[in-house]
Amino acid sequence: MKKKVRILALVLGTLMLLSACAPSQSQGGGQGTPAPVSTGNGSAAPTAAPSASAKDELIVAVSTEPSSLDPHNVNMVTAFMIGQHVIDRLFVADADYNITPSLAEEYEWLDDTTLQVKIREDVDFSNGQHMTADDVVYSIQRACSMSQSAATFDYFDGPNTAKVDEYTVNIKLKAPYPNALRVLAGGRGGIVCKSAIEEMGEDAYGRAPVGSGAFIVTNWSSGDRIELTRNDNYWGAKPAYKDLTFRIITENASRTIEIETGGVDIAWDIGSDDVARLEDDPNVNVVRGASSTMNHIVINSVNFDTLKDPKVRQAMHMALDMDAIVAVAFKGYATVAESLSPNSTTEFAKVGPTAFDPEGAKALIAESGFDTSTPIVLQIYKNQQIQSMAEIIANMWTAVGLNVQIEVVDRATMVTNNSSGKTPMCITSVTCSDGNIESVFRQWEKPETGFTDDEALIAAIKAAKGIMDDAERKAAYADLQQQCWDLNTVIPIATGENIFGVRSNVQGFVFHPDKTPNLTGITFG
Q: 477 near 349, Cβ under 8 Å?
């Protein structure tokens, strides 16, 4: 059956404006996911808050620096959050995972594997280049071929995606795929400027991307800030402020001080130690809610021999008291993992947790014959909460006789090395964007990453994505969650809360479980 949706430009523009300015009523997105909570004495008079006319810059503190803003060549949530303000997508998903058209003006399923999209005719890139179907075809084909986005676009048929006319594209799929719109609305679905990438090169484009979004990147000072300026030729509703600055502040305490003193207007990743203090601050609102991110340990048992024995990996899982980790590292602002994905995903199935059993862990290690003097390197990036987790985990593994060493590297290096299978073991995370459980399994599909080299398991993971029947797909993913849990090459820890500090004069901040709120609708009171 054909499905056809037509959106008048005027109606869409009005809806986007209302959506950008309206506060979120609930987080939504899945089973047992609570609505975000805003706390703090925000009703008290703020201290010397600038007037709306005087405040023309929104300053945001983020905890990590992205390696690039190229949507097809990066694997960091911070990059997708910042990038969405510069590079538009055909579709967008709100905080409740509802998908609506953006650059797409009309779309129609011609058959099970052909999505015809008519794009807006009034869109220019920030370099003045007019957007056409050629840019859309180029973007889809590029996303299908780039290493950081190819797995996400696995069901898309890049070579056969084709231009129909100047503003119409037929996006082809290799097979029927229920999450096609979700992928196009996700972080890797950005429509890039073909001519700009060809002229600039990929590395330069990633640092100063040419997009059709509400802002333009004007400066990137590594380790310090990324500065954006309003795109006054933007096709949609223009932000009320001129400049959007992302300050890179890796220390939790420093971000907290900046939000307290008004050095920033919004702070990402408020440390759990600081929540209570900020809740008592009359000039700050704490906005928090369940995230779509799972924190976990990844053990590369394919490319490294140290932890190939499944008994040793099972023992390592059994040796961890997850309740204690949540209580100490997260200060209770998290829930112990019960599967590989957060429970907000549509296909979530409860398969855990693994019982804490240090004596059983010791017995398994002894049974395996593992040489306990062998150094086991746990790699992490610099982050207070991650470091706290690592220290607790290392102590628990040491208690069952293992020789654990913690190695700290920068975040971008660790993400890149983990994605390419060059990290023996690390603490990292996966975000199930738009409630899509496929994000959990994308690394599993690529043997070179080291998650698994079981061809039958990889084939089952790939097949599950294409199951159109909801009940059958849910059953298939439940089985996959159990299989992968039992392998212990990934040891899920907890789903934490996303915690933001927002100055009380900031209005229109909308919580997003993916930690990617769109800031274009922000105003100052």
A: yes
What are the φ/ψ torsions at residue 491 (nearest 5 degrees)? -110, 100
Establish whether the linkage from the previous residue to 353 is cis, with ω within 30° of 0: yes
pLDDT tens track for 367-381: 999 999 999 999 999
Percentage of residues of the chain with pLDDT beyond 90:
79
3-state helix, strand, coil in the chain (%, to 5): 30, 25, 45
Amino acid at 231: N
The residue assigned the tokens 């484009």 is 205
Please state, in angstroms and as integers, the Cα–Cα distance from residue 427 to each residue in 31, 117, 251, 379, 489, following that order.
26, 40, 18, 7, 12
Q: Which of 52, 62, 108 is nearest to 85 (CA)?
A: 62
Per-residue pLDDT averaged across 179-187, rounded? 95
Contact 400, 358 (CB under 8 A): yes
More confident of the two residues 3 and 518: 518
pLDDT at 38: 64
User: Averaging pLDDT over each range in 35-44, 108-117, 270-279, 412-421, which range is the top one?
Assistant: 108-117
State the Cα–Cα distance between residues 445 and 417, nearest whole angstrom.
16
CB atoms within 10 A of CB 7: 17
DSSP summary character for residue 317: H
Sign of CA dihedral 185, 189, 194, 199: positive
What's the one-letter identity of residue 510?
V
Q: If you write DSSP's letter for every residue of 183-203 in order, what string do you get? A: HHHSGGGB---HHHHHHH-HH
Nearest to 27 by CA among 288, 267, 266, 265: 288
pTM listed for this prediction: 0.79
Q: d(Cα 401, Cα 397) in Å, to the nearest integer?
A: 7
List residues bridging with 124 in a β-sheet: 130
